[in-house]
Amino acid sequence: MLNLNAISARQDSKPVAKAFYLMSSYFNHSCLPNLGCDFDGGAIRLTLAEDVPADSQLFISYVDNPEMSQSQIKEFLWLHYGFHCQCPLCTAIPSS
Question: How far apart are the C-alpha atoms of 24 and 60, rounded to whole Å?
């Protein structure tokens, strides 16, 4: 349970720890997230990555490695979280 809801804290863009933040555990994944996660000591800072209309769902990325290809991300999400991503980016790319 903790591993599914934990967020990787990063330092210099490298994962250094996993932490559980109650409110951020409610966000769903998107490969095109509209929220960014930053860390300041032990605190998490969530910032809007773009303008978001009122009542829109907010998304974070569950993927820590920006170097992963889209097919690697799909495999990672299935293996680690048990779902097939249905974000706009993934649904626009044909399955291989």
Answer: 9
